[in-house]
Amino acid sequence: MTVFAMTEPALLRLFERLDFAPQPKDQALSRLFERWQQKRNGRIAPTAKEMGVPELGEDAASAFMLQWDSHQDEPELTFSGAAFDSLMGPCDPGAAVLIEAPERRNAARLRRLGRLVKERAEPVLAEFDATLGDDIRIRAEIVLTPLSSRGKDIDGLFGGVAVRHHHAPEPRLRHAHRIPSGTEPLLFSLKSGAAIGQRIAQHLGQSLQPHEERDFEDGEHKSRPLVDVRGRDVIVFSGLHGGFGQSVNDRLCRLLFFIGALKDAGARHVTVITPYLCYARKDRRTKTSDPVTTRYVGQLFEAIGTDRLITMEVHNLAAFENAFRLSTTHLNPYAAFGRHIAAVAGSEPVAVVSPDIGGAKRAELFRQDLEDILQRPVSKGIADKQRSMGRVTGDLFAGDVSGCTTVILDDLISTGTTMARVAQQCRDHGATHVIVAATHGVGGEASLRNLTKPAIDAVILANTIPQTPAFMISLGSKLTILDVSDVFAQAIGSA
């Protein structure tokens, strides 16, 4: 039932369509709403846990979740997919996005919808036209449903967002969207990189250009730009991590096909920004006939026509530079990590520890940067496993961490086993506070068993890989995710 006849004039100005008997047009929103209906099962509303964001698969990219705290008037964001960030602007978990989101008018719309859902304890569907940034016209569809942790009152919201760009018919494609003038590159972000892509574009003062990503019933897909790229420099943001319904291979294939489409459409120069580069750990042969997958990935990017690739904190920098013959830029998050650790440590002594011999150079570079920030000496340490006949027979540890806030630094966390082991070694050697820090949180929920161990006081990650709500909730205040989008923006600006 469409309810415009029963609503106040203010709502008529905010929405093109408002319906309390939702029938979403978008397939992902329809599946999200069906899931909510199934979990509701005759009650006032399901709980946030029952909605199981990690179980949503690819539909998680369209979903978001908000939760009211008993002491706050506005709900806090607990999870958001790429579609939510594209509508509201870059949003961090824990933020009161309905009043703090960069896209203020869209936040005001969602705030009004949230009040309706909370008052009525019923779902609502809304559609409206909006402008993102300076000139991107979109049609948004939102389905918003209530959540209840106690089964009595509404204390949360679960929703989905679908955003469609307004563009001209295909024969007039070049007039579909106003392209930035001058020498500014055109920015595109695939769904897998939408969150950090939005942030980078914001730092650059530009808007993301519209594109199409379409999936077919047999699992095939296509992607294409919806603006004319002929003769232009193009930058593409894409995540190459697994999870949320897509594997590493799915995302790598989608990115390669999109680069090919850009080149076929006449793009002059294509730069790829992938905060986490997949297959970077397989950089050498350890057994007969082993693949050197890092090199193969480099050959794929080169073959499709990539001109430049920018990434952050690969597993082995020398192997990466040897594997990629095209132009590359390698970044690190040390400045962001250093500022945060300086604030945490205060005047306490600090030590930096490498969890293995292979990461010793990485840890030493960070230690030197941290000394520059702190303006005082920083101790160092190194740990390693002692192996005999292919079996771990003991642990090695060198360095003085006694009485120190100790930072164990690595490029990524997979299962967290090594980090937990080294954290305990640091404790045994007198460390007073142990922080594990890594650029990429690859393991996600699989690492929780180790990261929640008492030897670890804090976990620091960069926002190169999105994390699930379950991961963030499980670690709680122990977890800090630092934004490194400004590092990528500076790399683009200095090119």
In words, what does this structure look like?
The protein has 3 domains: 4-165, Beta-Lactamase; 170-331, Rossmann fold; 334-483, Rossmann fold (3-Layer(aba) Sandwich), CATH 3.40.50. It has a 7-stranded mixed sheet. It has a 6-stranded antiparallel sheet with strand order 1-4-5-6-2-3, sandwiched between helices. The protein starts with 8 loop residues before the first helix and ends with a helix. With 495 residues, it is an alpha/beta fold. The chain has helices at 9-14, 27-40, 48-51, 82-88, 97-100, 104-120, 194-204, 248-264, 293-304, 317-323, 334-345, 360-374, 417-428, 448-451, 469-475, 485-493; strands at 17-19, 63-67, 76-80, 124-132, 136-147, 156-165, 186-189, 211-215, 221-225, 233-237, 269-273, 308-312, 327-331, 350-354, 379-388, 391-399, 405-413, 433-441, 458-462, 479-482. Helix 9 crosses helix 10 (317-323). Keywords: ATP-binding, Kinase, Nucleotide biosynthesis, Nucleotide-binding, Transferase. GO terms for molecular function: ATP binding; kinase activity; magnesium ion binding; ribose phosphate diphosphokinase activity.
